[in-house]
Design brief:
Helix content is 35%, strand content 20%. The protein has 409 residues and is α/β, with parallel strands linked by helices. The chain has an 8-stranded mixed sheet with strand order 4-5-6-3-7-8-9-16, sandwiched between helices. Strands 10, 11, 12, 13, 14 and 15 form a 6-stranded mixed sheet that branches.
């Protein structure tokens, strides 16, 4: 037994030296197992044990049916000894060149690919009856990444469980999907999952969560408005459409687009709580007459109607400021009030860094993507670790913060 241990270690160290001294350069394919057995005069069991050790040390990657390859030091495996299949699940179909992806989804995707060292890998797009997906394959990194969405003909707002099973994933990131029944099915697959942009506690999930923590940015915004003399500050929450089994069902639904039949955006609960905390701390009213809800979309009819209604209130009831779920809502109010010559301040959340009419409360989706990518690798390698909830803070820009709260003052 001792002689076998010595032989296995000798083979492993001889092969390690040949890799490190460049005899087998980065990216090179090693001789086949049969060739090694013949040239080294060892058993296949001894050889495989040595190769597996080198793979765990990150010096080689092994591909079933293809052989072993020397790792490029600039492109080491994500997890030595593992060939990972990682998925990012989105709430829509994945068209050619990501035509259906929103800007914030691009931010998360790009940050994730950078974190995993996959940015230089070419992408391929695919579709089938069950779904659509984009795929990156990096053999030397031991990693395949897929962005998976629903098929072109349905509007479930999530990929099918059957498609996810077929992808044989080792770890999953979900991007803004909040269907709790579907999430329970997903988590029941017992694949490590990190939920991104998922902030509500309705679902008792056995998964890691990365969400936007609204309290720093929203509390700072309300304090800044109060410091500028605002006393009548209203809150406007967001709404979400219901999910439909088929695209045709959405078009047939007479309630589609009607605000009273829509779902409240779960994230608005926490943004409203941050608004209420600061209003109560300042002794200002924050009752039901000062809270509203509408679509977070500039130019939307119901949002325009709400803006007109508030602008037409008597001066003693009319808001001096509105704190909104999203910046597009804030900009709609500013346009309506400006048209009537009524002063107004308005704030709302955004991920874009372009010029805005209102006060932007920034959420950094690239930071969310980086954290989610790291957290998923940690979960894949240590599935027994405690589940985490990590809040990425929404932030009010420094130029709007109350002077006494700015850093260094």
């Amino acid at each position: 037994m001792r002689s076998k241990q010595v032989k296995y270690k000798r083979v492993r160290e001889d092969m390690r030296k040949q890799i490190l001294n460049g005899h087998y350069p980065p990216g090179a394919q090693l001789p086949s197992e049969d060739e090694f057995v013949h040239s080294l005069g060892v058993s296949k069991i001894t050889l495989v044990r040595a190769l597996n050790d080198l793979a765990r040390d990150g010096l080689i990657v092994r591909r079933h049916g293809r052989g072993s390859f020397v790792v490029d030091p600039t492109s080491r495996p994500l997890v030595p000894g593992r060939n990972l299949r990682l998925g990012l699940l989105v709430s829509h179909s994945v068209g050619m060149n990501y035509q259906h992806m929103q800007a914030w989804e691009h931010d998360i995707l790009n940050a994730t690919l950078r974190e995993w060292g996959m940015t230089q890998i070419p992408v391929e797009f695919h579709q089938s009856e069950t779904g659509t997906w984009a795929e990156w394959q990096a053999e030397l990194k031991g990693c395949t990444v897929q962005v998976i969405g629903e098929s072109m003909t349905v509007r479930h707002k999530h990929p099918s469980i059957e498609q996810i099973k077929a992808a044989r994933l080792d770890g999953i990131l979900t991007l803004g999907i909040t269907n709790d029944a579907w999430l329970k099915e997903l988590i029941a697959l017992r694949i490590p999952v990190v939920l991104l942009d998922f902030s509500y506690h309705v679902l008792d999930v056995r998964a890691d969560v990365v969400y936007f923590d609204p309290f720093p940015g929203y509390q700072a915004a309300v304090r800044a408005l109060i410091a500028r003399g605002m006393r009548r500050i209203h809150f406007v929450g967001g709404l979400r459409h219901r999910a439909y089994a088929e695209a045709a069902d959405m078009r047939k639904d007479p309630d589609w687009g009607i605000p009273d039949k829509a779902l409240p955006d779960p994230e608005s609960v926490y943004r409203k709580a941050a608004w209420r905390i600061e209003m109560e701390a300042a002794g200002l009213p924050c009752d039901a007459s000062q809270t509203h809800a509408s679509w977070n979309s500039l130019g939307e009819a119901h949002l325009q109607q709400l803006a007109r209604q508030l602008a037409e209130l008597p001066p003693e009831q009319r808001p001096q400021a509105v704190v909104c779920h999203g910046l597009p809502q804030a900009e709609e109010f500013l346009l309506e009030f400006k048209q009537r010559g009524i002063p107004l301040q308005a704030a709302g959340a955004t991920s874009g860094y372009h010029q805005h009419l209102g006060w932007p409360i920034f959420g950094d989706y690239q930071q969310m993507g980086r954290i989610g990518a790291r957290l998923l690798l940690q979960r894949v390698t240590d599935p027994a670790d405690a589940f985490l909830r990590i809040g990425v803070p929404l932030v009010l820009p420094e130029y709007l913060v109350v002077p006494s709260e700015q850093p260094g003052r």
